[in-house]
Amino acid sequence: MSRLLALIALFLPALALAQAAEPKYYVFEPSGAVSTLGIIYTLLMMGSFLYVGWMSKRRVTSSDDYFAAGRSFGGLSNGLAMSSNYMSLATFLGFTALLWKMQYYVVALVLSFTGGFVLISIALAPALRRWGKYTSMQFIGERFGQTAKVVAVICMIFLAQLYLIGQMKGVGNVFQVMFHWDYTTGLVVGGLVVTAYVTIGGMYGLSYNQTLQAIIMLIALYIPATIILLKLGAGPASFFPPFGYGELVPQMNEVMSSYFNPFLTVNGTVPMSFKFYFGVFFSIACGTMGLPHIAMRYFTAPSIRDAKVSTLWGTFFIGLVFFTTFAIGFAAKLYTVNELNAQGLQIQPKEADLLIVVMSQALTPGWIAAMPVAGALAAGFSTIAGLLMVIGTGLGSDIYSTINPNAADQSKIKMGYVFTALGGLATIGLALNPPDFLLTSVIWAFIVAASTFTPVLILGIWWKGANKAGAIAGLLVGGILSGILFFSKGKLGDFTLIDAGPIVHLVTGIFTMSAAWFTIVVVSLLTGGEKNEKILREIDRIHGWQNYDPKRYSSNTFALVTAAFALVLMIWSAIPDPTYAKKPEAPAAAAPASTPAPAATPAPAPAESAPAPAAQPAPAPAQPAPAPAAEPAPAAEAPAAQPAPAAEAPAAQPAPAAQPASGQQ
Length: 665
Fold this sequence. Notes:
This protein has helices at residues 2-20, 32-56, 63-68, 75-86, 89-102, 106-123, 125-131, 136-144, 146-179, 183-231, 241-244, 249-255, 274-290, 292-299, 304-340, 349-352, 355-363, 366-369, 371-403, 409-430, 438-462, 468-488, 504-526, 533-542, 556-574, 578-581, 586-594, 632-641, 659-664; strands at 24-25, 264-265, 270-271, 345-346, 491-492, 495-496. The protein is an all-alpha fold.
């Protein structure tokens, strides 16, 4: 009898593997209530946005009105507009999906997204508002010359299109789900609506709509999040979701303790390097400082004080939304493990983008379940509108005024209409063939911003030695490098420039931003620095000084120290990360496991996370100590660093079987 049981135990892993070979995937279908109410909410929103844009047209009497809303938005209203301008559709959909996939690591993203605004308020906002133009490109033009402005506009168009493609894809996906249209139809309809109201109303229409969209986003996120957390057992703390998800931590510890390991990701199967945390700061926080559609909001404030107050309100609302989204993503992971995976279902990446809608439909009433659809569209429309406005301003004001410096005010407004509309149509065309993941192109837009605008703006404001040659060289180096790495996925020819495991593009920002910073400093010093006294006096003025001091903000020592630091960062970021350098050796470690005991093979069976150690009967016939098999998470990182653990003990042999799972992620 014991032999029979042993034979059965030996064949159980094979049965488990056969079942795992054909996983069942969850497919989201909106309920009748969600679909109907989602359509109603969408139509009401689109009608409201078009109406606001049309009514705002009456207030446009000058280029100052069209491009800067008459500099009349400050305080709370500008803070709301600023937050909705920043919080894109990727915040609602892609961010939740990324948290579901990457777990703890996304904490760094949340802090970087929010922290970027703190850096703006300290380093850029007051000076840019005192300069008093429409865009950061205009600042670059007056600080470094017209050639630098043209290069900056080209960089802006590149990063704006990267940002827009991800947003347009999200809008097309939402229309596809709610209206049961094909992707192309949803993309064209949504794209034309947002292009129309921005083109018609200019910055006035954009500002009023972004304020309205921020309110919609907050309601559409906060109410479902509260109910979802309540249903999952978070208790009274659910009424403030950023704290409420903390009540679910014990549940998560039971089903996936690796969730809270900062150096493990992808369900505890992939090791996470410190380099990624550093890379997030450069790519996201520093990238936020360089986003031109964010800088535009400061030029709409009536005064320096209003610009600062707007930043405080904007940071508050952004933090509230991102931490609430984090709570939903946390709950989504718990829900997929406890509910969907328990039913034998797995989530595909394309379905992960809809997790917030999936959970709302499963856990909230129909009229609330449709809210995230409205919030996602409002988020997408607000960011698309802001980016189209910066394209229209960059081409219709910055470039057109360079070509025709004596152009009449009304002529500039007409060019703004034309270029805003053309930007929208071009983006719709590019989004017909979007990237696989919604966040991919958006994160690359942050990297381009960090590599081009951020170094030029910071050094242009805080170091008088930065000059035209340095700025142009820095913009070109940062823009070209980030562009090459975007299209080649981190490679220059056959040489892998950045080699650091998963989500490599976040680490890329360290290299490209440091390269641009180093270039600006070195080229500026080699070409003698800035000599124009008018510009040097203007730098003192934008910092609030009444008198001019040629020694103020002119330290070359400061510049050289930062350049040396940038060079070190460039080298460090390009060195292959030790965590992943030995990854190809992993199969050698897995080989011994198959020889003594095929029973160790069921380890890959868990498709989603830790709850599936159901295949663990295998250790019994495997004779060695079965206890270590209950610790899959540490085993996932050990093989990479220890290619030949055979000398330790047979007990370590079952663990490498989990390695193929991490390799496949």
